[in-house]
Amino acid sequence: MSKLLIVNISPLVTLAGPARPRIGPELCDLALIQDGAMLVDDGRIVAVGSRADVEPHAGDAELIDAGGRLVTPGFVDAHTHLVFAGNRADEFEKRCAGITYQEISAQGGGIRSTVRKTRAATEDQLFAAASHHAQWFLHGGTTTIEAKSGYGLTVEDELKILRVIRRIGQSTPLHTVPTFLGAHETPEEYHGRADDYVRLVIEEMLPRVTSENLAEFCDIFCEARVFNLDQARRVFTAAKRHNLGLRMHADQFTSFGASVLAAEMGAKTCDHLEQAQPSSIAALQQAGVQPVLLPGSVYAIGSQKYPAARAMIDAGLAIVIATDFNPGSSPTTSMRIIMSLACTQMKMTPAEALTAATVNAAYSLNRGGEIGSLEPGKTADFVVHDAEDYRELPYFFGDHQAAMVFAKGVRVV
Ligand code: NIG
Ligand code: FE
Question: Which of 59, 122, 189, 368 could be 363's S-S partner, Cβ–Cβ 3.0 to 4.6 Å?
């Protein structure tokens, strides 16, 4: 692989700092360098600093001129539902007419309608759709995503989705971190028998998923009329036996202790948290759980209730923001839109939003030593933005094509 010297970067946002997720005032420390340069060899960062410091070590490296523009680490999107068939523009139209997301779900639409289409699709068809969406992520400056299963809900259909996630990571420049979300919804054929379905998840799906090494994490949608605390505890207990990390969809529409359970069970993240109570925030802080906030899903379902990001930051939580890309509640791949919502609706600062979208997200995926900041030894995943100031990332919204994107030191956009 070739050696690259990237010069004329202003500013270079390195996010260099302690080797752990950032909290409190650290969220604002972007470790900026004006007129920066970066040396990359064999897909890894070798040197970062001022041009005067870095250039003497460049040897025969290929020169890339960033044109006096902003460079940041590639975005790390820590919560996506990448693999699904079709879309739900029809339900979107109904929501515009006033029918709620939960009403549509209660009528058999929502997640279940995507499950029907995803089951009917072949692995190759799902791969084609996911590859298309992978290009959207890359063009927006995202170089790593977490990706969940959860639209199959049979053993074979869940495995099919997880294999697509693996193929995307192997055959496109977008890195994927796979999460098994068999407990996303009770499928139609188990209607009224959620406990039986949970048994299928635990006794048949989890062993297959882990024996084929198809997931690093296990997730569950713990919510009224979906899965309760007892079912979540059973799924998480089994997942831990299989050495999977835990992530939980918690406190999205109702608050009944899901995030407290996640904290008690040592989850890596709690995601959504729109309805989280102060006692939940304290429990997450004590257990070191990272909150993954998903303002795109609040915006797109037309809710006004955003998660309490400021209270979480004040409590010392290592906050993460993510797209929740999915065909229902959050059809966006744009981390810049998410940063914009984090700033305008959750009152995070642009610097906090950028930290939450990169280095903190990387730690939530156990990748903090590899990606999320631009420091020697890390993977050369970085973005040249069409901007001269990091605050432009959330300020200009809706127009979010990166100028150049590099993954493992290779230009992919
Ligand atoms: O994170 N809340 C559950 N799962 C997704 C939505 C999935 C869908 O609507 O298809 C979410 O919002
Ligand atoms: Fe989700």
Answer: 368
Residues 289 and 225 in one domain: yes
Counting ligands in written order, the one closest to the CA of 300 is 1
Does residue 366 belong to any structural domain of this protein? no
Range of the domain at 43: 4-73+372-411
Cα–Cα distance for residue pair 66/32, rounded to 1 Å: 15
Query: How far is 344 from 338, CA to CA, in rounded Å?
Result: 10
Residue 382 has which token pair?
């970085």
**CA 198 vs CA 97, 171, 233: distances in Å:** 35, 33, 11
* Calpha distance 251→273 (Å, rounded): 5
How far is 315 from 278, CA to CA, in rounded Å?
Answer: 9
- How many CB atoms are located within 10 Å of the residue 302 CB? 12
Enter the pTM of the model.
Answer: 0.98
Centroid of ligand 1 to alpha carbon of 71 (angstroms):
32
| pLDDT tens-digit readout, 77-136 | 999 999 999 999 999 999 999 999 999 999 999 999 999 999 999 999 999 999 999 999
Are 56 and 90 within one domain?
no
